[in-house]
Structures are given as C-alpha cells and as structure tokens.
Design goal:
mainly beta; 16 strands
C-alpha cells in the first residue's frame, strides 16, 4: 500500500487548533501586581486616589457602591467617598480572575484607632518614648485629632506639632480637636520610681500608643 501526501487540510486544521490553544494559554492568568488607595481615612465627599497594575481587564467596585470609570490594566483614578467603603478591584481573563480589597474609613463616627509604635527608653532621662508621623497616605489633611485616650495605667504626655498635653491614666482629652492629625507625634511616659528601662518597657508591652478618634476640620 502506498502512502499518499493527501491535500494538507487535516494538517492545517491541526495547526490551526494548536495555534488557538497556544494563544489561549499564552494569554496567561489574570493577576493584580499592585493596588493601593490613599488616603485611607477621609471626610465625607473627599476623593481618594486608587492606583493599580494588573494583567487582564479591570473593574473597580465599592461597598457601598461608588462611581468608577472603566479602567485600563494599569493606571490611577480618583473616587469620591461618601461613607466608609470597601473598594474591590478585580482583574479578569477568560478562565481566571484575581481580586484585591482596600477599606477607606470616613472619619465622623469612625471608632477610635490606636496610633503609636515601638518605644525606646532613655535611662538617664528616665523616660520611655516613641515618635512617629501620620502621613497623607494614612489620613486626609482635613482630619483633626478630635479625641485622644490614654489606654495605660500610667500618665502619658502626647505632643502633636507644637501642642502638648499630659493625660492621666485611662483619661481622654479633646485638647487636640483643632489640631491636624497629620504630622509628627511624640508619646512619652516617665519611668516609675521602682522601674528600670527593662521593666518599664515590659509594663507597656514595648510599645506606646494612644487611641485616636478623628473628625473633619472646617
């Protein structure tokens, strides 16, 4: 029996099918490599900046709903926030999707949140202290330090910019209500008479923080 060459149509069909499969798998999976929302604490009606980088078509949705334009696979857009919102970005491809979430808190009515950090101790000054900054990545510039609470069984002194206030144990203050929350903060507490640096840091869990409830400035 002789084997003929045929008309080649079967070969073309096979190659065409192989090309389709290769193109399909060559497209890869949907993926989000970058996603951020700033700031994360805002006043009602303010804009946040959403930035992303993804593979696939991209959608942005909010709970509660927000107005968001059609998005390219990479870019930046502004979204108006009316109430505390979860922003969900999704990348889509034919057989896969990838999703990320980011929460934005509207400050009026928002619960108090701790702000602080790892503390250090100065044996000579007999003081435990921490310094940190609240940036525009974290909070709108209109945010005010409505109420601060001292969570410790010891006095702490809080300084924001040029304003300083000492809070008794477990006390709260509204002395910073007109002070922008953005900026440089210092929290410090003296070592008690019987304390060393080691025992003092142990007593505060090696951290100093205050609970901050924020409001919106005029």
């Amino acid at each position: 029996m002789a084997w003929g060459r045929g008309d080649g149509r079967g070969d073309r069909r096979f190659l065409g099918g192989a090309s389709f499969v290769a193109a399909l798998f060559g497209a890869g999976c949907a993926a989000i490599s970058e996603y951020s929302v700033v700031p994360t604490r805002v006043c009602p009606g303010e804009l946040v900046t959403v930035s992303w980088k993804a593979a696939g078509s991209v959608t942005l949705e909010g709970t509660p709903p927000v107005e968001a334009p059609d998005l390219p696979s990479e870019g930046q857009t502004s979204v108006k926030i009316a109430a505390s919102t979860r922003l969900v970005i999704t990348a889509h491809r034919l057989w896969s999707s990838d999703q990320r979430e980011w929460d934005v808190v509207v400050m009026p009515g928002a619960p108090a949140k701790p702000f602080g950090g790892l503390a250090t101790c100065d044996e000579a000054a007999r003081t435990i202290a921490v310094s940190f900054s609240i940036t525009d990545q974290q909070m709108s510039g209109t945010g005010r330090a409505l109420r601060l609470s001292n969570p410790y069984d010891r006095a702490v002194t809080v300084r924001i910019g040029e304003v300083e206030q000492t809070l008794s144990p477990k006390a709260s203050t509204d002395a910073f209500r007109q002070v922008p929350a953005q900026g440089n903060w210092t929290i410090k507490t003296p070592l008690l008479a019987e304390e060393t640096c080691s025992s003092g840091l142990l007593a505060v869990g090696s951290r100093l923080a205050v609970k901050l409830q924020t409001s919106c400035g005029d």
